[in-house]
Write a structure and sequence with these properties.
The complex is a heterodimer of chains A (265) and B (248). Chain A is an all-alpha fold. Chain A has nine helices and no strands. Chain A has helices spanning 2-38, 43-55, 58-80, 89-127, 130-136, 141-179, 184-194, 197-223, 229-262. In chain A, helix 4 (89-127) packs parallel to helix 8 (197-223), helix 4 runs antiparallel to helix 9 and helix 8 packs antiparallel against helix 9 (229-262). The N and C termini of chain A lie far apart (55 Å). In chain B, a hairpin with a 2-residue loop joins strand 1 and strand 2 (14-24). In chain B, helix 3 (95-105) packs across helix 4. In chain B, 38% of the residues lie in helices and 25% in strands. Chain B is globular, with a radius of gyration of 18 Å. Chain B is an alpha/beta fold and 248 residues long. Chain B has nine helices and ten strands. The chains are: A mainly alpha (265), B alpha/beta (248).
Chain lengths: 265, 248
């Protein structure tokens, strides 16, 4: 009986902490949006963050896109050739890349690379009193630290996702046509015929929302780091794990919502 | 100039400040001493608005600051400088950019003015020519001096020093103490120095306040505190461990 009480207590504690964190993330997001319109944009900070997030993440995201397209094309070819449906490989790869694989995998990679960096940098600044120093110098930390990171990620993520899509579809074409000998003309013609503008829109909308999730969770975790160097490691891990889980859960709801809105008729 | 009235604060369920009352006159140098964890730094953070009290009021130049929102504090923060215990230099910025930062935030865009002011401030702390160095390339004492130069570059009316000599060797500590005195004289600014270094306290303080169990337990001139026969104050001033504090 006592064990059950302990378990219930632990579960209750977990629920309270989860609600507290979610509330904190939403409050930070609201504060970020308010600061975005209230203060001037710090272009130097924004460009620096865009360079780090947008340019420096290209190799990782392009590699992910390329090999996801390649492996998906190969898997689809192995299955479809049994039914003589090789000409459907192109649209299948293209639609899967646009609707799910492109935005989800590119943003998971961004959560790992950029989210971790954001949480680690902000938490280091927090424990070394640099955030307090900013406040002491009369600068609002959300405006100086969070807004440039938030904006840079929200702008960069859809662009990187678009690059991942192009690479994935291109490499999928190469694998299917050059390696497995699928007819290139059919492949390309069907890809264009069955891939809708709405599929690309889904990819871009998803990556935009995932970027908001990654930036909000990582910045919240960084700004609420417990004291000590152990806190930085814990914060960074939590930021990546929480952002990745939130992204995957949100993806399901977004899929349902976007499909019902964009394909309602 | 500054008045703390009955400041109370709980942190992590523990009552750290239990009614602190303190007044600081213009150009006065007040040293707050006390044992580790007695709430000295927490008190300083209330003056800067980095923490909000659970009870009590902070007045600066006659204006009540308690209850102001984060952004409403900023005009007052520009009149108060703070030297943090770990210097808190922005480690992604060079020494020049660290010092120019408060000036740029005030809207100064003329690079020549910025260069001149930064050079002047670095000269005051005897670090002329270090503009291009990064904080990681500086020693602990140099970091504190750069942080001090940054804190005073806007010529605040009140300077707060959080453990300015902690972690420094006695010679560098002495140079920081002299710098605190020099800056006070040069710019006529009031200062509050939080420390548990009695050498530093005697050297820089016009008045010394002993913080104990979240309250100002005793205050007086350095001579008065040295003559004080209260066992708590006497043990701290002379550095004697007694009762529960004796190990072994």
């Amino acid at each position: 009986m006592q064990r059950v009480e302990v378990l219930i207590g632990k579960f209750g504690g977990f629920l309270v902490r989860s609600f507290e964190t979610s509330g904190g993330v939403f409050l930070l997001l609201a504060d970020t949006l308010r600061s975005l319109f209230r203060y001037r944009i710090r272009w130097d900070q924004l460009l620096e963050q865009m360079y780090f997030i947008g340019i420096r993440s290209q190799v990782v995201v392009l590699t992910t896109g390329a090999f996801t397209g390649a492996v998906f094309a190969a898997q689809v070819w192995f299955q479809f050739k049994r039914f003589g449906m090789e000409s459907a490989i192109g649209p299948t790869v293209s639609i899967a890349m646009c609707r799910e694989l492109g935005p989800v995998l590119a943003c998971l990679l961004l959560a790992g690379r950029v989210g971790a960096a954001m949480a680690a940098e902000l938490s280091s600044m927090k424990i070394t009193e640099q955030v307090d120093a900013l406040r002491a110098l009369g600068v609002y930390p959300t405006e100086y630290l969070i807004v440039p990171r938030f904006l840079a990620l929200v702008i960069s993520a859809p662009v990187l996702t678009a690059l991942a899509l192009v690479t994935g579809i291109g490499v999928g074409y190469f694998v299917a046509v050059q390696i497995f000998g699928v007819d290139g003309a059919y492949y390309w013609d069907n890809t264009i015929k069955y891939t809708d503008r709405k599929d690309v829109m889904i990819a871009l909308i998803k990556s935009f929302i995932f970027a908001i999730i990654i930036a909000s969770i990582s910045c919240y975790k960084g700004m609420n780091c417990p004291p000590g160097t152990a806190g930085v490691g814990k914060t960074t891990t939590e930021a990546v794990v929480n952002a990745s889980l939130a992204l995957l859960i949100c993806n399901f709801f977004l899929t349902v919502l976007l499909n019902s809105v964009l394909y309602s008729n | 100039m500054l008045e703390l009235k009955d400041i109370r604060k709980k942190l992590g369920g523990q009552e750290v400040l239990r009614g602190v009352n303190l007044r600081v006159a213009p150009a006065e140098k007040v040293v707050v001493i006390g044992r580790s964890g007695c709430g000295k730094s927490v008190m300083l953070r209330h003056i800067m608005g980095l923490l909000q009290p659970d009870g009590g009021e902070v007045f600066f130049e006659g204006k009540k600051l308690t209850g102001l929102g984060e952004e409403a504090w900023n005009p007052y923060r520009r009149k108060i400088g703070m030297l943090f215990q770990g210097a808190a230099l922005f480690d992604s910025l060079s020494v020049f950019e660290n010092l120019a930062f408060p000036l740029r935030e005030e809207g100064e865009t003329n690079e020549k003015v910025l260069r001149d002011k930064v050079a002047e401030s670095l000269k005051i702390v005897s670090l002329a020519g270090t503009e291009q160095k990064m904080p990681a390339e500086l020693s602990g004492g140099m970091k504190k001096r750069v942080a001090l130069a940054r804190a005073v570059i806007r010529r605040p009316d009140l300077m707060l020093y959080d453990e300015p000599t902690t972690g420094l060797d006695p010679v560098v500590g002495d140079s920081i103490n002299r710098l605190i005195l020099h800056l006070g004289k040069m710019f006529g600014m009031a200062s509050i120095v939080v420390t548990h270094d009695m050498t530093s306290a005697r050297m820089v303080g016009d008045r010394i306040a002993y913080l104990h169990e979240g309250k100002i337990y005793f205050q007086g001139t350095p001579e008065q505190i040295d003559r004080c026969e209260d066992p708590l104050v006497r043990d701290f001033v002379r550095g004697h461990a007694s009762g529960m504090d004796v190990i072994g």
